[in-house]
Amino acid sequence: MELSFKTLSLLLGIILTGLTAGLCYTWSNAITPGIGSLDDHTFLKSFQAMNRAIINPSFILVFFGPVILLFLNAYWFRNTSPITFWSFLIAALVFFIGVSVVTVSKNVPLNEILDRSILEVMSKQELAQLRKTFEEPWNRWHWIRTLSSIASLILLLMGSFNLK
Description:
By secondary structure, the protein is mainly α. Helices cover 85% and strands 0% of the residues.
């Protein structure tokens, strides 16, 4: 396989999908369980700070770059083995729906509710209610993103192994 634009796109797709899977896995297995043990105010304040810090150019590239690259890879490698094409196409669809659509339609609205909240003026009951509204749904949707990004990476690797 020569180092063409197609090859570079495939490599970048694999790298960015792997980084997304790693980020999601780490968040699911270390960050949310770690801050989950904090009191309501500290938990919510910590999540606000992390949500604000993570929105940066490198995150946007890593988290949303695969959406474009994976569909391009399915298109560019459509005339290779059927296993490669279908692996790449399914990886693109799983990533698009399970990571991008879930992020935009489920996690981001929860993040926005949290971001608009002025925690310092909320009562203990209001903080507890906000946490209940936020934490469990956010974690559930995030696990879908985690599993989807890992599945996409596995499919990309499977398809790559079948390239001639």
